[in-house]
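tl;dr need the bound structure. longer version: we got a ligand (pantoate) that a collaborator sent over and nobodys looked at where it sits. i said id run it. heres the input, straight from their email, havent touched it
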Amino acid sequence: MILIKNAIELQNLLAKQKRKAQKIGFVPTMGALHEGHISLITNSKSQNLLTVCSIFVNPTQFNDPLDFEKYPQTIESDILALEKAGTDLLFFPNQAQIYPMGLDQQPYYELGNLEKLLEGKYRPGHFQGVCQVVKRLLDLVSPDKLFLGQKDFQQCMVIQKLLTLQQSAIELVICPTLREASGLAMSSRNLRLSEEGKLKAALIYQTLQDLKAKLSIDSSIPQLLETSKLQLLNAGFNSIDYLQLVDPQSLEPITNWEPQTKAVLIIAAFLEGIRLIDNLPI
Ligand code: PAF
């Protein structure tokens, strides 16, 4: 695996590959890699793409500076895992390589309601930050395909919107969420949970599955969602930012669900002070 820290070096090397008609698959990450990330690499590799991964903890997408400071950094083990997965190139830039003009004066993207609902409500500015870094990375890597995990469902919708706004030809490939045996969605944040917390966190997925099963027999959605929230709080969760049934494209809440309605159950909840998110398409 080639490791590059410099943006111009990266562009030069990838331009050479493109001249040889080599297609590129790109997996952007913030490091603290787990099997979920590796499955994105494996997916890209299985499509015979030159597979580029980036590791950059992007300050502009953190609305809580403490969360940014505490973000786990595990670069040595990340490199080993990427090498083992057959990654062709790792881009590991510093802040100046990503934001050469500084952090102020970033572009604004018209994301509409997608950045106001759910995560957007609780993390104002977060998706602008995500778009800023992803746009910069895509400009540098110029991939044919971009691989993202479905666990960050709203992020996938936002980045799809960014690609549409930019009239980009890059194909977004959304890969399934990888889970622990308990059902807990794999996430870099799980590293901050205690062993007991990890067991309790599995209740999130159990709740989503339970709700999915109940939806077909009981259509009083607000009541079902409220009962589930209470159950999680009683089980020891600190708070629930949201638990909603939403339209998969617009992310607007669905109040009248029928079996043929496409929908996603989506949740953000705090446990042991750690914010965990998950979702389940219906
Ligand atoms: O999902 C993430 O890890 C980040 O939001 C991303 C897409 C790498 C942008 O910083």
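gonna send this back to them w/ a short note. Residues 28-30, 58, 61, 130, 133-134, 152, 155 surround pantoate (CB under 6 Å).
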